[in-house]
């Protein structure tokens, strides 16, 4: 069972999608991620791409993010995100877009301090999404992107983009890759 780890919605259980179409981030990995982000979350604008159940953006809101935008193309997943937002009483500062990520990037107009993306493993659209984030100027000046990926995913393509990898946190089967824009 997934739950909110900390903040205003601490310990609230979260609904997930049935089946294995999504891979929710485990509580342990989520807690490690948010320990790394603890100085950056409060007051930030958070963008959750490939949001699934919404648990990462909800954790950010619970810990004090001023807003979170959730992008998810699955109608069932969007329903779960909305249920989880209502259950945690975090709907007011949230916006949910039912769109595929590349299309949503062209519609978003804000600047985000933290952009989190957890595309389906094997999808390998990270390069396309990073280009979309850059071209649509979605990253705030000192903001950063975090990609959750399979531990074996090769990120050498980043050297051809206006981003640099600033940190990698590896777990048993997956990892978080932190990137900053070279133009910040």
Short recap of the structure:
With 184 residues, the chain is α/β, with parallel strands linked by helices.
- Total of helices: 5
In helices, the fraction of residues equals 25-40%
Q: What number of structural domains do the residues give? A: 1
Q: Report the mean per-residue pLDDT as an integer.
A: 93
Structural class: alpha/beta
| Poorly predicted spans | none
Give the radius of gyration: 15 Å
Description:
The chain is α/β, with parallel strands linked by helices. The chain has a single domain, classed as Rossmann fold. The chain has helices at residues 27-37, 55-62, 75-88, 101-107, 126-135, and strands at 2-3, 13-14, 45-49, 67-71, 94-97, 112-117, 139-150, 163-170, 174-181. The strands form two sheets. Strands 5-4-3-6-7-9-8 form a seven-stranded mixed sheet, sandwiched between helices. It has a two-stranded antiparallel sheet with strand order 1-2.
SSE order and pairing:
Layout: E1 2-3, E2 13-14, H1 27-37, E3 45-49, H2 55-62, E4 67-71, H3 75-88, E5 94-97, H4 101-107, E6 112-117, H5 126-135, E7 139-150, E8 163-170, E9 174-181
Parallel strand pairs: 3-4, 3-6, 4-5, 6-7
Antiparallel strand pairs: 1-2, 7-9, 8-9
Helix pairs in contact: 4-5
């Amino acid at each position: 069972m997934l739950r909110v780890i900390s903040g205003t919605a601490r310990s609230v259980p979260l609904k997930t999608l049935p089946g294995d179409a999504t891979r929710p981030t485990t509580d342990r990995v989520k807690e490690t991620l948010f320990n790394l982000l603890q100085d950056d979350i409060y007051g930030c604008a958070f963008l959750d791409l490939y949001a699934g159940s919404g648990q990462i953006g909800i954790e950010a809101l619970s810990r004090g993010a001023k807003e979170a935008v959730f992008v998810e193309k699955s109608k069932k997943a969007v329903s779960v995100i909305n249920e989880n937002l209502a259950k945690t009483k975090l709907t007011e500062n949230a916006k949910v877009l039912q769109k595929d990520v590349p299309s949503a990037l062209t519609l978003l107009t804000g600047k985000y301090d933290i952009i989190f993306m957890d595309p389906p493993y094997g999808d390998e659209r990270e390069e396309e999404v990073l280009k979309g984030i850059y071209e649509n100027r979605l990253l705030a000046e000192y903001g950063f992107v975090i990609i959750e990926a399979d531990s074996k995913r090769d990120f050498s393509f980043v050297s051809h983009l206006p981003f640099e990898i600033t940190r990698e946190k590896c777990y048993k089967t997956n990892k978080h890759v932190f990137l900053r824009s070279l133009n910040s």
